[in-house]
Every structure is written in structure tokens, then in C-alpha cells.
Amino acid sequence: MSTATSTLKQRAEYTYKHNLRFGRHGWLRLTPAYSVKIVEELLGSRNRFRRVFDPFCGTATTALSAAYYGHESITIDINPFLVWLGQAKTARYSDGEITDARQACVQAVELLRTNRSKLVCCPPPIHNIDRWWSSGVLTFLCALKGAVDSVTEANSSARTLLTIAFCRTLIGLSNAAFNHQSMSFKQGNQFHLNLDIDMPSLYESDVAFVLGGAAENPLGTASVFLGDSRNPSKTVRGPVDLVVTSPPYANRMSYIRELRPYMYWLGYLTNGRDAGDLDWMAIGGTWGSATSKLTDWKPAPDTFKSKLLRNSLERIAGEDNRNGKLLATYIEKYFEDMWLHLGALIPLLAKGAELHYIVGNSTFYNVLLPVEKLYEEMLRGWGFSNVAARALRKRNSKKELVEFDVTATWLG
After folding, report:
1. What is the DSSP string of 323-343?
2. What was the pLDDT predicted at 13?
3. Is the Cα dihedral 72, 75, 81, 82 positive or negative?
């Protein structure tokens, strides 16, 4: 191994360990450490630089990890908030920009402590907002948002970094819990738990966390674009020789659910219908109107055909399963979308390109949906070679739920 390669590997390993605790991957508390570990292992095992593509950006885990390893990475997402977050996480920040953000934080907190009543920022139009934040916390967050906007310029690095810290603070002070699929809220008699917190100091801690991550600039480059993974060629130019991604899982979990508080506060959403419409546009979305639209959806004539999928759908749609038909339709649409995505990916691939899809299987009414096998079928159906699935870990306490790395090679 050359000295340059050894140095790069040491830097990447240090940055990986550093970021698990302090860095950009954890800026919004949305990226599990294990997800970062999987991506790091895949990228770290490849010695030569590659052009890496992630067609499902999410919180930019893959793009940021690839850039830390010195690769050129490209990623897209259909959610504009995630594109903004991904661009912020993968950007390079100069010492001067970090200093400006730190000074702006001091100014914002000073305004909060001395002139909070003069700071004007209306609360976002979230339905039942009092379930999310107690009145005292909501008043503070409105003042904090007004303070950040007043001491920074629009589109500046300082505003971006302080806004990310604001997002950490607002969710840290919320009454919501996101540690399971069915989001829950504190009871009204628990709201007082947040009132003993020195909220300006909490924000200062969140700013310090964000700026600590911002100081660790990646060696490579990352580009984050707004785009639809079912038509990536409209946004991305090939060729790419490594695709590493974790697409939405076929488990009916709405990905916009966890993002709504951020998106409302930052103006990406203004009402619940917007959230439902955006979730419908995404693959696997089920929030609000996205579920009701499933009742009118019909598969295309040339969609993915699979006996394994058909048998699973018939069992899930059984007469004894409440909402079974709706769930079967959801699953069928999910695999049609992923079938379209894989076919549209081919024009971007270099000969010999390697694919890694991190997916998890699911259960519906005790029917195990073998997602990894269906991905294998789709890849073979589009002409990929060396298709295989490797079990990575159990997803939770249910022994049948497993996360897989589904791999393939495009030989042209």
C-alpha cells in the first residue's frame, strides 16, 4: 500500500470514528450509527477511487461517507428538504465560515436573553402544534428562529449551520418520540419536563456540535440534486461505477413522518396535504392522502412480473386480513417503482459497475415478504450479473426480520 493510500485510509478511519459521535452524520439525529458503519465498510474495502452514486439520498449518509474516503459522489432525492440537508452536510466549510457562524450564535443568544419579545417569527402551521411543543418552548423556538434570521444573511453558510443547530434544538425540546414506528407524544402532565432546561444554552451546545462536524471537511467531493430515482438520467450524468444505497423499505413506514417538524419550521411544508402529496411522489410513501390514493392505483401492463411476489400478495390480501388488499396494493406499487428505478439506472452505469442495495425484509399479517429475493429477481430481470444477497444483521427482536446487502454487476 502506498504512503498516500495509507494516509487516506487513516484519515478516513479517524473521520468515521469521529463522526459517529460528533460529526455531520448525526447533525439531525436521523442517521443510525449502523447505517454509517455499513456504508463505511463497503467504501473502505475499495482501494481505487470511484464515482459513487446514491439514488436515494435520504440524510446523505452514502454521499458524505464516500466524500470522506476521497471519492466523487453524486446523490439525488425527491424531497427538497433532504436535498438542502444533504448539500449542507457534504459542503466544505472554511475556518472563516465556521468563525462567522460561531460569532452569529453569540449574537443570536444575546438577542434571546435581552430582547426576546422584539423577535418576530410566527409558529409553523402544524396541526395540533401544542402536542409537539409546550407553550413556553414554542415561544422560545419562535424567538430563536427570529434571532437566527436576524443575525445571518439568507443563503449564507452561517445561516445554514445555525439552522441545522436550530433543527436539533427544536426536536430535542419536542414532546414527540421517534424511537419506534408509531410516533408517540408525552402526556400533558409531562410537558413541564422541558421548562427546567436552559434553552439558550441547549442551543449553544447544538451549535457547538454542528460546528465541530463542519470543521472536518471531506477529502472528496459530493453533489446533491433534486431528482426522481425513477428517472435519474434527467438529473445525473454518467458513467458511475459504484452504486451504494438504502432505498425505502417495503414496510409502510412513512419517511416524511420524521421530517415534518423540520419541514414545517423551514417552510418546505405549509399544510398536511402537501405532506401527503410529497409522500405519494416518493417510493413507499404512505402519509395522509398517499394512502387514500392507493385505492385508485393500477399496475402498468409492463410492470415487474414475479410468481414469488404474486403468491405473497395473495396471502397478504386474504379475506381474514383487515386492510389486506390495501397493503397488497401498496407492496405491488412499491415493487413497480423499484422495477422502474433499476431499469432507468442502467444508462448511467459504466461497464463493470457494482451495485449494493441495503434492504430489509418485512412481515404483513405474519406473511414474510422476501424483499431480498425479489430484488434479486428484479436485477436478473434487467440483465445484471453476479446477483446475490448477503445477510447483514437482524433488524429487531423478531428473528425473521433481517437487513441484507443485495449486490449485482453491470457487464453491459
Report:
1. THHHHHHHHHHHHHHHHHHHH
2. 45
3. negative
Evaluate whether 251 touches 360 at the Cβ level (below 8 Å): yes
The pLDDT score that the predictor gives to residue 297 is 94
CA–centroid distance for 75 within its chain: 11
The answer to whether residues 83 and 224 touch, using CB atoms and an 8 Å cutoff, is yes
Strand partners, 129: none
Close Cβ partners of 18 (under 8 Å, ≥ 6 residues apart): 216
**What parts of the chain have a pLDDT lower than 70?**
1-22, 31-34, 46-49, 178-184, 186-196, 397
- In Å, the largest CA–CA distance within the chain is 68
Here the cell at position 46 is 475499495
125 vs 150: CA distance, rounded Å: 21
Spans of all domains in the chain: 3-92+220-256+266-410, 95-214
Backbone angles phi, psi at 77, to 5 degrees: -155, 150
Q: How far apart are CA 382 and CA 39, in angstroms?
A: 25
Name the pTM for this structure. Answer: 0.90
Q: Which residues of 41-60 are buried (b: 16+ CB within 10 A; e: fewer)?
A: ebbeeeeeebbbbbbbbbbb
Residue 80: CB atoms within 10 Å:
14
pLDDT per residue as tens digits for the range 208-227:
999 999 999 998 999 999 99
Alpha-helix residue ranges (DSSP H) falling in 45-94:
61-68, 80-90
Please tell us whether the domain made up of 3-92+220-256+266-410 is placed in CATH 3.30.390.10: no
